[in-house]
Design goal:
single chain
Length: 122
Protein backbone atom coordinates (compact mmCIF):
# COMPACT_ATOMS: atom_id res chain seq x y z
CA UNK A 1 0.00 0.00 0.00
CA UNK A 2 1.43 3.34 -1.08
CA UNK A 3 0.88 6.29 1.19
CA UNK A 4 1.50 9.93 0.31
CA UNK A 5 1.33 12.60 2.99
CA UNK A 6 1.50 16.26 2.06
CA UNK A 7 2.51 19.11 4.35
CA UNK A 8 3.49 22.74 4.17
CA UNK A 9 0.23 24.32 3.12
CA UNK A 10 -1.19 27.36 4.82
CA UNK A 11 -2.18 30.97 4.47
CA UNK A 12 0.11 33.36 2.61
CA UNK A 13 -0.26 36.84 1.17
CA UNK A 14 -0.20 37.42 -2.53
CA UNK A 15 3.37 37.52 -3.74
CA UNK A 16 4.52 35.26 -0.97
CA UNK A 17 6.04 31.80 -0.99
CA UNK A 18 5.32 28.36 0.35
CA UNK A 19 7.13 25.06 0.15
CA UNK A 20 5.04 21.94 0.02
CA UNK A 21 6.41 18.51 0.89
CA UNK A 22 5.09 15.05 0.12
CA UNK A 23 6.45 12.07 1.99
CA UNK A 24 5.95 8.68 0.37
CA UNK A 25 5.95 5.28 2.01
CA UNK A 26 4.96 1.75 1.22
CA UNK A 27 7.17 0.90 -1.72
CA UNK A 28 10.29 1.88 -3.61
CA UNK A 29 10.06 5.58 -4.20
CA UNK A 30 12.94 6.17 -6.52
CA UNK A 31 11.58 4.27 -9.50
CA UNK A 32 8.38 6.28 -9.86
CA UNK A 33 7.48 9.66 -11.25
CA UNK A 34 5.91 12.19 -8.90
CA UNK A 35 3.70 15.17 -9.42
CA UNK A 36 1.41 17.82 -8.00
CA UNK A 37 -2.15 18.70 -8.92
CA UNK A 38 -4.42 21.32 -7.45
CA UNK A 39 -8.14 21.87 -7.23
CA UNK A 40 -9.85 25.11 -6.34
CA UNK A 41 -13.43 25.26 -5.08
CA UNK A 42 -15.87 24.82 -7.94
CA UNK A 43 -13.13 24.17 -10.46
CA UNK A 44 -11.67 21.11 -12.11
CA UNK A 45 -8.47 19.55 -10.88
CA UNK A 46 -5.47 20.83 -12.80
CA UNK A 47 -1.92 19.70 -13.32
CA UNK A 48 0.80 21.77 -11.66
CA UNK A 49 4.15 20.00 -12.04
CA UNK A 50 5.83 16.62 -12.38
CA UNK A 51 9.29 15.18 -11.90
CA UNK A 52 10.64 11.92 -13.22
CA UNK A 53 12.02 9.10 -11.11
CA UNK A 54 15.60 10.36 -11.15
CA UNK A 55 14.81 14.03 -10.76
CA UNK A 56 16.47 14.80 -14.05
CA UNK A 57 13.33 15.76 -15.91
CA UNK A 58 10.58 18.16 -14.90
CA UNK A 59 7.51 19.67 -16.50
CA UNK A 60 5.24 22.51 -15.42
CA UNK A 61 1.88 23.94 -16.25
CA UNK A 62 2.33 27.16 -18.20
CA UNK A 63 0.61 29.12 -15.45
CA UNK A 64 3.30 28.28 -12.88
CA UNK A 65 6.39 28.08 -15.05
CA UNK A 66 9.15 30.29 -13.71
CA UNK A 67 7.53 30.62 -10.28
CA UNK A 68 7.19 27.04 -9.04
CA UNK A 69 9.95 24.44 -8.72
CA UNK A 70 9.46 20.73 -8.19
CA UNK A 71 12.27 18.63 -6.74
CA UNK A 72 12.75 15.32 -5.01
CA UNK A 73 15.05 13.65 -2.52
CA UNK A 74 15.01 9.90 -3.08
CA UNK A 75 17.01 9.31 0.09
CA UNK A 76 14.12 10.82 2.05
CA UNK A 77 11.30 9.51 -0.16
CA UNK A 78 10.07 13.08 -0.44
CA UNK A 79 9.03 15.40 -3.25
CA UNK A 80 8.83 19.16 -2.86
CA UNK A 81 7.03 22.02 -4.54
CA UNK A 82 8.53 25.45 -4.01
CA UNK A 83 5.93 28.07 -4.86
CA UNK A 84 6.95 31.69 -5.28
CA UNK A 85 5.01 34.82 -6.24
CA UNK A 86 1.74 33.19 -5.31
CA UNK A 87 -1.51 34.64 -6.60
CA UNK A 88 -4.97 34.63 -4.95
CA UNK A 89 -6.36 32.55 -7.81
CA UNK A 90 -3.94 29.80 -6.84
CA UNK A 91 -5.87 29.13 -3.66
CA UNK A 92 -6.60 25.41 -3.82
CA UNK A 93 -6.01 22.01 -2.32
CA UNK A 94 -2.67 20.77 -3.59
CA UNK A 95 -2.28 17.02 -3.93
CA UNK A 96 0.76 14.86 -4.47
CA UNK A 97 0.63 11.97 -6.93
CA UNK A 98 2.84 9.09 -8.01
CA UNK A 99 2.90 6.56 -10.79
CA UNK A 100 4.79 5.12 -13.74
CA UNK A 101 3.25 7.51 -16.23
CA UNK A 102 4.82 10.74 -17.47
CA UNK A 103 1.66 12.71 -17.89
CA UNK A 104 -0.33 15.87 -17.23
CA UNK A 105 -3.50 13.81 -16.84
CA UNK A 106 -4.77 12.99 -13.38
CA UNK A 107 -6.09 9.69 -14.75
CA UNK A 108 -2.57 8.44 -15.35
CA UNK A 109 -1.38 8.51 -11.76
CA UNK A 110 -1.92 5.55 -9.49
CA UNK A 111 -1.75 7.03 -6.02
CA UNK A 112 -2.86 10.29 -4.46
CA UNK A 113 -2.31 12.03 -1.18
CA UNK A 114 -5.14 13.65 0.74
CA UNK A 115 -3.96 17.12 -0.13
CA UNK A 116 -2.91 20.25 1.69
CA UNK A 117 -4.77 23.54 1.60
CA UNK A 118 -3.02 26.58 0.19
CA UNK A 119 -4.78 29.90 0.66
CA UNK A 120 -3.41 33.05 -0.94
CA UNK A 121 -4.91 36.27 0.36
CA UNK A 122 -5.08 39.44 -1.71
Amino acid sequence: QVRLVESGGGLVQAGGSLRLSCAASGRTFSGYNMGWFRQAPGKEREFVAAINWSGGRTTYADSVKGRFTISRDNTKNTVYLQMNSLKPEETAVYSCVTGRAWSWSSNDYDYWGQGTQVTVSS
